[in-house]
Amino acid sequence: MLGINVMVFGFVAYSAMAPGALTKTTLLPGITSHGHYQIEMRCDVCHTEGSGIRQDACLDCHADELRLAKDTHPASKFNDPTNADLLSVLDAQNCLTCHREHVQEQTLPMGLTMPADYCFHCHQETLETRPSHQDFAFDSCATAGCHNYHDNRALYENFLLKHADEEDFLSTMAGLIRTPVVESNTTQLNGGDADAPEDWMSATAEDVATLDDWASTTHAAAGVNCSGCHASEVESNSSDVALKTDSEPELQWTRSVGLDACGKCHEQQRATFFEGHHGMRLAIDLPAMTPAQARLPMHVDAAHRQLDCNACHAGHRFDTQYASVDACLVCHNDEHSRAYQQTSHYESWVKEVAGETASGSGVSCATCHMPRLEDDDGNVWVQHNQNANLRPNEKMIREVCMNCHGLAFSIDALADRDAINQCFAASPSVHIESVDLAKARFEEKQRKKEQRLKQK
What we know:
globular; EC 1.7.2.2; two-stranded antiparallel sheet; Tetrahaem_cytochrome; oxidoreductase; about 5% strand; mainly alpha; iron; two-stranded antiparallel ribbon; about 35% helix
């Protein structure tokens, strides 16, 4: 009996103390949401010993996302003394007021742990001031296409009015063109320019193919040689530096290329990759994500692929066309992904790849889930956090859907579960009244204004 007790105690102690131990899952107070389950073995990321959950842990990962989303309810808004009465009802300065992990009964289908009635606490007067809302349930505010607490940019009233009369399908696609990471006048390299060590450059068919692959990429076209990814300068002491001022720096070569090497040129892509499901484990020093660990259906033969840059941008080709569709479908086997190749979106992609239509006119998986964004300096880059516009999916409206579709059509499509499962193969069969209500409210205000003018 004593031996059993010692074994149990040892198991519990190891589970509690080992940062990445698989056995820690036995101590979880409840199921982790699908937004965080990958990192559930690193309790210390969100919890501090003896003080429970850290409020700033949320911002460690999500502060930049909230800033880019132009959050409509920032904590700073509630620092204003005029909103003190609201804080007494709902502490909107604290993420944990609404978001708590391991609370399965409050975890919504989209993965957020959140009460459904949070809007009602501060906006009860809406039921009195807006007759159109009188029959709405108190917990229906966050229904798809209505209101979001954080990213509400495509759903606020003025925006709805501005885009109220748009056609379902816009006449032209308004996509962004990526900004090159190097100057366009850089000397293009070819296979004979490769600067890899001689013992790497044997004449085997495999090595020749590797050089041919590299020489055909935008890396070679931009002057990025083998050393750009495979080598780093050896750190020297001050006396060594003094002796080598007129010589080339000593390089340390490695065959494996990590994310840091990619990040030297693709900093934003690397940073956002760490924020998404594909890279969040690597961001906190856990082994890379594999499809076997996913909660979505995945192809069995892809179960043990490690998800890093090379998982999608494979080998020395770094083929962005492959990464845009094929790399996704190699792993993903859910209904939405399987349906993609039966849609008009896929047809447009096939035509673009075949050169029948202009570059950027096709709709790939990456077009919607890894969209091109413009930063504060006007540079266009690819968002590599593939979940950034899915929680909630209305975040796709401005960055993705409205490049091709009208606002009302976009809202309806994202609220139609069947359309989502079919990968939008057909027009939505669901209608959300957001635009209609905004127009009706505007027209009512106009009528009242005209009546007041007549009375004068």
